[in-house]
Amino acid sequence: MNYLLRGIGVLMTVGVISVLAFSLPSGEARGDGGGETLPRLTHKAWQQECASCHIAYAPAFLPKASWRRVMGGLDQHFGENASLDPATQADILRFLEANAADAGSSQMGNRVMRSMGAKDAPMRITETRWFVRKHDEVSRAVWSRKAVGSAANCAACHRQAEQGVFNEDAVRIPK
Fold this sequence. Notes:
This protein has eight helices and no strands. By secondary structure, the chain is mainly alpha-helical.
């Protein structure tokens, strides 16, 4: 009887340790947008084409309709000709739509959508009510500083923006 109880105890201990060990995250911790960290997304064309001029903005910051507008006007992309071949353009748009704010794939996207009307399709992340509310304490003078340039330059203050980290405690506003 004593061996039976010991055996059950050992099995239970091994079981509990296994469950705990396999439920802990391994490698670099990444969020699903629940905090101020976006999920790590990889898409070669999106990273290569979009990040060649600016950071590859997280799809969760705009709804699908906005991404359709942005990608549909690449020949006049905020004053630049950012045209792509049709296949690459369609590939990037599919990726953006699959991960857009209204795709339901991240908590960050859900928060962006809560501050937006169902038919809203802003062209700029900086035009969303979510962005304006999160940056309401930043003055126009800060946005126009040479080291910042504009509100679209996330990486100027959010040093880990390219990794999807937008933690307010880590913000460093350049002088």
